[in-house]
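> forwarded from #structure-qc
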């Protein structure tokens, strides 16, 4: 959402720098005779102490068509006055990439576009210096850079990015949605957004949190439509920790959809306005029902699932639905993973031919239709849930179909929730960003979904989402190293990222094969010669990935403990936790720490014992004054049990600083330290009790955050007896 200069251009694809006709048109579009901002230099008195001020920000979106040919133009210009050294340094280098690849698919064929960048410096005396982008850019490791020399405080940097992207489309096509705030890192004097379309282009657009409304401008042609959003005097926004900008700041959202005729309009996966000349600003629940009632109708060949349930009995529908979810996850997804890796590693040209004509569920629509077909045949009632992420506003502000999350609520005695499965997803696991939100529930009477009502999704607690570590620490005989063994356990949402990061494909596909008795990719080959060859290549790939993985995990552990170098690092998986949301993913790490945490002090030693709970949040002074609400991804807890083996001939001093207790409505940090026999036992618990706190509770959150940070800096003294 921040359009910094370097960030803006970092991912920009540049394919044409020369002064072609199009390049000159792009330049004239912003810097030509009609440039009303060429002399804009003054800033309001209230912003003279800012690092930089945006004098003018102009964003344009143009959509036009001729037959099957569609032309899409996007452009942005920013004119920024630099007021201190930090701003001068930030804008002294631009980064971008030259190449842009075309894409071809069933719906569209996007051709290589023409893209243009212009940069000029305006000195305080009015002198303009235009940068020759083509001449002065240097390619380094596939990235192009332009150094802006002789930039000084008081200069104005004026730059634009102009992209012309032609493509062909026969079917309905939705352009990428845009959701952004007006505010950015620097205050803005004048802001303009323009959108231009014609017939067959449909617009959903609305503004929020006090942003100005979109206005229609007169045009010279009846089928041409032009719109403007204009704003001024926009204060900067310091994007803060746990902050949802679209909920707090003036913002707008829009999407343009291209559909040539009524039949394509009907097929469009979007909440389209009734006519092209209407700007759609909201979506009713009736429109939600109308869009999804047929798309999510139960349908699918579930014969393989029926075969799985033969000669199996379950005590209740909850157990049966749970078993079906995990079997479908394997049968329609994970059993194809080996083939996917074989293809990506060029081990085999067509690795999927082993499966015949398989059912491979890859999207939400396929999943909902397949899973509800199973539920309907089992006479188990359900609702299709239509939700919207918390950072994007409430369901009442639904505008863009892209913002919808769809899952299934199974109406067992305690409802079960099923979302499109990934390789590690669990039943009752769905995005934490839709937890606790108001949703639409779509219900079928027979085969057709024809009832819609409101509902609310459940919220996981800090006890559901746990990181637990059991750490044993002892010193080497010569006190040169600290030896650590850490058993790490993750459940709930905390394990999701860990599973994707730490499990290799053979870790989980072999687990699924063993659980369900299905044949793996190698076993499905007919020729023994092929089996031996491809098994060898697949094993070699797994070994190669494992070597890279261990290096990555070592670096991750070092970062977790905020230390530079571990020695003798080993890593083993103890349990995957892939068959229940509340089960633990567990692994054990062993390593030695040298040249850190241990310092000799005469005959004694100082141990930075607090560092063993990992890095803790150190709030900056500017973060302490907060007016925005606090949005965290999910409630969670961190529980550490540390056993420090006290060397023979030593005692421990300084335990009083390791006993802390802050527990309030928002969270907690608690720690205890006791000595039993020759072991110092430390227990710490840190809780985030909710996924949301109003800003008036910020001081309570700071209390336990500060206590945790203070603990991480505590030390103990090993005293020689």
């Amino acid at each position: 959402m921040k359009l910094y200069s370097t960030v803006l251009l970092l991912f920009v694809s540049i394919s044409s720098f020369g002064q072609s006709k199009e390049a000159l048109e792009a330049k004239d579009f912003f810097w030509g005779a009609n440039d009303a901002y060429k002399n804009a230099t003054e800033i309001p008195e209230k912003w003279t102490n800012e690092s930089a001020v945006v004098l003018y920000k102009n964003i344009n979106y143009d959509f036009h068509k001729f037959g099957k040919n569609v032309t899409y133009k996007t452009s942005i210009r920013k004119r920024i006055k630099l007021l201190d050294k930090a701003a001068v340094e930030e804008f002294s280098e631009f980064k971008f990439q030259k190449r842009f690849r075309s894409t071809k698919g069933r719906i569209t064929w996007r051709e290589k576009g023409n893209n243009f960048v212009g940069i000029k410096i305006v000195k305080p005396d009015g002198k303009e210096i235009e940068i020759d982008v083509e001449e002065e850019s240097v390619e380094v490791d596939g990235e192009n850079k332009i150094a802006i020399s002789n930039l000084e405080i008081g200069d104005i940097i004026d730059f634009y990015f102009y992209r012309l992207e032609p493509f062909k489309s026969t079917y309905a096509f939705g352009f990428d949605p845009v959701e952004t705030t007006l505010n950015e890192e620097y205050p803005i004097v004048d802001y303009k957004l323009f959108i231009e379309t014609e017939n067959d282009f449909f617009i959903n657009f609305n503004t929020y949190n006090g942003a100005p409304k979109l206005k229609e401008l007169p045009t010279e042609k009846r089928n041409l439509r032009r719109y403007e959003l204009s704003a001024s005097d926009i204060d900067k926004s310091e994007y803060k920790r746990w902050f949802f900008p679209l909920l707090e700041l003036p913002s707008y959202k829009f999407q343009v959809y291209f559909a040539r005729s009524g039949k394509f309009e009907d097929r469009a996966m979007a909440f389209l306005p009734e006519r092209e000349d209407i700007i759609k600003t909201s979506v009713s629940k009736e429109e939600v029902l109308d869009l999804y009632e047929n798309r999510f109708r139960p349908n699918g060949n579930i014969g393989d699932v029926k075969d799985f349930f033969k000669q199996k009995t379950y005590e209740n529908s909850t157990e049966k639905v749970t078993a079906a979810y995990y079997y479908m996850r394997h049968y329609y997804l994970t059993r194809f993973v080996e083939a996917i890796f074989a293809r990506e590693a060029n081990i085999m040209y067509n690795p999927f031919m082993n499966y015949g004509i398989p059912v491979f569920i890859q999207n939400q629509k396929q999943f909902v239709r397949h899973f509800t077909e199973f539920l309907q045949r089992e006479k188990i009632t359900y609702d299709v849930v239509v939700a919207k992420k918390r950072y994007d506003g409430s369901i009442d502000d639904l505008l863009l179909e892209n913002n919808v999350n769809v899952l299934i609520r199974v109406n067992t005695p305690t409802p079960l929730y099923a979302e499109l499965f990934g390789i590690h997803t669990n039943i009752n696991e769905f995005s934490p960003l839709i937890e606790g939100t108001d949703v639409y529930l779509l219900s079928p009477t027979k085969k057709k979904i024809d009832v819609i009502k409101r509902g609310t999704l459940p919220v996981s607690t800090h006890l559901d989402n746990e990181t637990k570590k059991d750490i044993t620490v002892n010193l080497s005989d010569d006190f040169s190293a600290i030896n650590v063994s850490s058993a790490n356990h993750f459940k709930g949402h905390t394990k999701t990222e860990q599973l994707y990061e730490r499990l290799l494909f053979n870790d989980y596909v072999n687990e699924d094969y063993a659980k369900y008795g299905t044949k793996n990719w190698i076993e499905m080959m007919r020729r023994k010669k092929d089996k031996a060859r491809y098994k060898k290549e697949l094993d070699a790939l797994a070994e190669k990935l494992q070597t890279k993985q261990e290096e990555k995990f070592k670096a991750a552990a070092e970062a977790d403990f905020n230390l530079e170098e571990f020695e003798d690092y080993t890593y083993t998986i103890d349990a995957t936790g892939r068959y229940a949301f509340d089960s633990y993913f567990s692994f054990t790490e062993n390593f030695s720490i040298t040249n850190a945490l241990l310092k000799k002090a005469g005959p004694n030693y100082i141990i930075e014992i607090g560092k063993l709970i990992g890095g803790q949040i150190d709030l900056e002074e500017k973060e302490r004054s907060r007016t925005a609400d606090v949005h965290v991804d999910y409630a969670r807890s961190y529980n550490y049990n540390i056993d420090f083996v006290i060397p023979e001939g030593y005692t421990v001093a300084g335990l009083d600083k390791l006993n802390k207790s802050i527990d309030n409505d928002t969270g907690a940090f608690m720690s205890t330290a006791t000595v039993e026999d020759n072991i110092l036992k430390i227990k710490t618990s840190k809780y985030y009790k909710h996924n949301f706190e109003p800003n008036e509770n910020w001081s309570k959150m700071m209390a336990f955050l500060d206590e945790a940070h203070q603990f991480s800096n505590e030390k103990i003294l090993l005293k020689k007896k």
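QC bot note: The first strand starts at residue 52 and ends at 66. The mean pLDDT is 90.
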